[in-house]
Design brief:
- The complex is a heterodimer of chains A (349) and B (419).
- Chain A has 349 residues and is mainly α.
- Chain A folds into two domains: 2-95; 114-346, MetI-like (MetI-like fold, Orthogonal Bundle).
- Helices cover 80% and strands 0% of the residues of chain A.
- Chain A is globular, with a radius of gyration of 26 Å.
- Chain B is an alpha+beta fold and 419 residues long.
- Chain B is built from ten helices and nine strands.
- A five-stranded antiparallel β-sheet of chain B has the order 2-3-8-5-6, with no helix packed on it. A four-stranded antiparallel β-sheet of chain B has the order 1-9-4-7, with no helix packed on it.
- In chain B, α6 (266-293) packs antiparallel against α8 (308-344) and α8 (308-344) runs antiparallel to α10 (373-401).
- Classes of the chains: A mainly alpha (349), B alpha+beta (419).
- At the A-B interface, α2, α6, α7, α8 and α10 of A face α5, α8, α9 and α10 of B.
């Protein structure tokens, strides 16, 4: 236990948590005012709702009860305390994932808890972007390897230009075009959502899901693939000249085996970094595409919450996404160290 | 040879940029609706245009009969008929273009001037026979012309007759607006706005925002990066901590929530972007400055008594400026894309016209469902074109000015290692 407490891993995790704390603190301070405003409205609605349903009250009794109930709830939510302690309370509730109630949006079961909304959306987002990152890695690696093997070839030259052109294209715009072309002009794919209504089950359900997944997935893969391939190519190009590849060639190992086993294994840690960074960047940079396709993930939550001006949902999703981002980065550091022992060796005195 | 290939992209970027700037500056002179910038959200300003029609160039010999051009005909030189007791009639004749003839024609008659104006409108058929179309008494006030919408079938010409009281002369000639099935270089949107006008007006804001924000962010990043590297100690630690803080935030989500909560103007948005984007240049500059700090000429400067400030900003800074230019150019597309994304959500600054806002309107007003491609394609293509321009420019800077520092992973070209 003591070994772990003193280990690099523990320090890295601790550092990540500390950064998260600071981020949430700043976040709570910046958004405190709007968050409190929507909380007060919610509290008032709740009280009026309770009083309305509790039978006939005359005006005076209604007002007295209302103000006393309001006062009780306001002090329960710490809204009557000084600013700094309100911010600290907010920080604490965000840290413990208590994001409160939404003001408009409801989950599929009719709940208004923001955490529930996020929990419902997260798997969909992970499905879309996880599949995207996997496909990008698979195809990007192959393309990058072949480009690196024939340096200066057509593929290689295409790789040095394509990412630059694609970087300036908003994925959501390509999504709009894809929808217009392949859902409306040629009705090959559904126009949005994650399943048909009513949702089929079994094999048909899976096919239905794939049909809905296809367009947004293809747009993301087509846009992100080339940048990934270029980076793989850059990493691998350096490895091709390394002594162990030369040794493998001398032993008479086949080109294919050299490419996929020897070169690739040397590039593994760097490629893991690429994979995680691609996933994280896509999660935050391409989230608007979910709104275009009505894909019910985190990005779509932003989309709807902006339209409905649902502040608690916006704040909750943002805090959660920051958390996700940080977990990804810390996890990446740790995984990198396990995959590439040289890093740990360098740190040792 | 290598240099030539390297600078070719940069030169293309330069030419494209010059072209974009030229259009951006000359914008108001190029567009058919000159004060559209102030009236973009003004329904009355656009009332004479057709709604959601494609560009004029979709017209070909095969569909010319179905698609009439939009346009405006100004009435000139009326024929006057004087009555015996004074007053009389003033008759304007509008020849309708042959190509519009076979089809039903929608038009708006615009009558200016002032006061009560009795007007008779007749259509002239192929045989020259006149048929009365409308007879109205218009109450026209100065600056607010009266409008009458009409539909004609198979008319060759249109006559507008104004009845004059004794002592009156014809005052302001009427004009007719042809509401066609095609309009302008890029068509119109559902709110009848001219898309070409919007594209040209949006260019200015995209360039201004992109260039201003990238310049400021990169300069901030450079200055802070050099400060951290050259001062060391607590400055180093503090700046790197602040860097870490901002670098860990997911930028787009933060910008979305900030924009949703505070509804910033374009300039406030620029300020927000500054807060997030300076981190892009900070880290590379920091590590480069750490190396440059150790170089001989800096040591030499130190030995002749150059202070920290002088060493940092007179000796180190110039060595990093070329890199700074490259980063500036390369970060413009991102900034334009972020603004477009925020505007696409409907959180843009309503006082200006941006491509993102055009795409927002397109999205919420059903351009995708109704396949109004001329509304969706141009704004995105312009975002892409601007992006490519600055990307080319950035790579040009990277390669020509500092070939040895251009080997960042994303900018690596073919055959850098080996040969």
């Amino acid at each position: 236990m003591m070994v772990f407490l003193r280990s690099w891993f523990f320090r890295r995790i601790l550092h990540g948590l500390a950064m998260y704390l600071v981020l949430v603190l700043a976040f709570s301070a910046v958004f405190n005012q709007v968050a409190e405003k929507s909380l007060r409205v919610q509290v008032d609605e709740e009280v009026v709702g309770i009083l309305r349903s509790s039978g006939n009250l005359d005006q005076e009794a209604f007002e007295t009860l209302r103000s006393s109930m309001l006062r009780e709830r306001i002090s329960r939510h710490h809204l009557d305390e000084p600013w700094i302690s309100r911010v600290l309370w907010r920080t604490w509730s965000v840290l413990s994932f208590r994001f409160g109630q939404s003001s408009m949006l409801k989950s599929s079961t009719g709940e208004r808890g923001v955490l529930g909304l996020i929990a419902e959306a997260l798997p969909n987002t992970l499905l879309l972007f996880g599949t995207e990152a996997l496909l990008v890695m698979a195809f990007g690696t192959v393309i990058g390897l072949f480009a690196a093997r024939s340096r200066g070839g057509i593929l290689d030259r295409a790789l040095s230009v394509l990412p630059m052109f694609l970087k300036g294209l908003p994925s959501w715009w390509i999504g709009m075009l894809a929808l217009m072309a392949f859902a409306y002009a040629l009705p090959l794919f559904p126009s949005g959502g994650i399943h048909s209504n009513p949702a089929p089950t079994g094999i048909q359900g899976a096919m239905d899901l794939l049909r809905h997944l296809f367009l947004p997935l293809m747009v993301l893969v087509a846009l992100n693939l080339w940048g990934f391939a270029l980076q793989v190519r850059t990493i691998v190009a350096g490895l091709f000249d390394s002594p162990w590849i030369l040794a493998a060639r001398a032993r008479g190992v086949g080109e294919r085996s050299i490419l996929f086993r020897h070169v690739l294994s040397g590039a593994k840690p760097a490629m893991l970094t690429l994979f995680v960074m691609d996933l994280l960047q896509s999660l935050s940079g391409n989230l608007l595409i979910e709104g275009i396709f009505g894909w019910p993930g985190l990005g779509n939550l932003y989309f709807i919450a902006v339209q409905q001006a649902d502040v608690p949902v916006l704040l909750g999703v943002l805090a959660f996404q920051t958390f996700l981002n940080l977990v990804g980065l810390v996890g990446l550091d740790i995984a990198y160290r396990i995959l590439d022992p040289r890093v740990a060796a360098r740190d040792r005195p | 040879m290598k240099r030539f290939i390297k600078s070719r992209g940069g030169m293309t970027g330069f030419v494209l940029l010059a072209f974009l700037i030229l259009i951006g500056l000359a914008g108001p002179l190029l567009v058919p609706f000159r004060d559209a910038g102030r009236h973009w959200h003004d329904i009355e300003y656009w009332q004479d245009s057709p709604a959601a029609v494609p560009p004029v160039w979709v017209r070909g010999p095969w569909n010319a009969g179905k698609l009439a051009r939009s346009g405006r005909l100004q009435g000139k030189d009326p024929v006057l008929f004087e009555s015996e007791g004074g007053g009389g009639r003033a008759v304007w004749r509008f020849m309708l273009s042959k190509e519009a003839k076979p089809m039903r024609l929608d038009l708006i008659l615009v009558i200016g001037g002032e006061g009560k104006r009795p007007v008779l409108v007749s259509s002239v058929g192929d045989d020259g026979a006149e048929t009365e179309v409308a007879r109205r008494l218009f109450e026209v006030s100065v600056g607010q012309p009266a409008r009458l919408a009409l539909s004609l079938d198979g008319a060759r010409a249109l006559t507008v007759t104004e009845y004059l009281l004794p002592g009156e002369t014809a005052r302001d000639s009427p004009s007719i607006v042809l509401v066609g099935q095609v309009s302008g270089l890029l068509g119109t949107d559902v709110s009848k706005r001219d898309i070409f006008t919007g594209i040209v007006l949006g260019l200015r804001w995209a360039l201004l925002l992109g260039v201003a924000v990238s310049f400021l962010t990169v300069m901030t990043g450079i200055v802070l990066g050099i400060s951290a590297a050259c001062w060391g100690g607590w400055v180093d630690t503090a700046l790197n901590r602040i860097y870490e803080f901002f670098a860990l935030m997911p930028i787009l989500p933060f910008l979305i929530v900030l924009s949703a909560v505070y509804k910033p103007s374009l300039w406030a948005f620029a300020g927000l972007a500054l807060l997030f984007f300076w981190t892009k240049a900070f880290k590379p500059v920091y590590s480069m400055a750490l190396q440059i700090r150790e170089e001989g000429y800096i040591e030499a400067g130190k030995s002749i008594g150059a202070g920290k400030m002088r060493r940092a900003f007179v000796y180190v800074l110039p060595a990093l400026l070329p890199y700074g230019f490259a980063v500036m150019a390369l970060s413009v597309p991102g900034i334009i894309m972020y603004e477009a994304g925020i505007s696409m959500l409907g959180l843009g600054d309503g006082t200006v016209v941006t491509w993102g806002q055009m795409l927002h309107d397109a999205l919420v007003q059903g351009a995708v469902i109704n396949r109004l491609w001329w509304w969706i394609l141009p704004p995105g293509l312009m975002i892409a074109l601007t992006g490519i321009t600055f990307a080319l420019l950035g790579r040009g800077f990277e390669r020509v000015w500092s070939p040895d520092r251009g080997s960042r992973p994303t900018g690596a070209g073919p055959s850098r290692s080996g040969t």
